[in-house]
Structure prediction request, 105 residues.
Amino acid sequence: MIALAIALLVLASGWLPAQENCTYRKDALGNMRYQCDSGEQGTLRKDALGNWNDNRTGDRYRKDSLGNYLSSDGEEVWGKDPLGNWRDREGRRCREDALGNLACE
Prediction:
């Protein structure tokens, strides 16, 4: 089961796909590395077109004209709420912690 969440990209207005209960950290190359409580881990890389690619799942995410992010399979849609957190249709949430890491619930 692939349950993806979008998290706020530190220092850039982007998004990140992630499993539930995951933490994201930006590396020196600008990629986002994630580690989940389930033991799954991966890297999200932004391509020249602004799409994010997940090296673990092979999914690609693109930003639509409303600022929401859509998965390549069309099943996941993420957008920002009024507090700046990312939420999906099912109510899952990702937010930045005090250390600048992103945590998804």
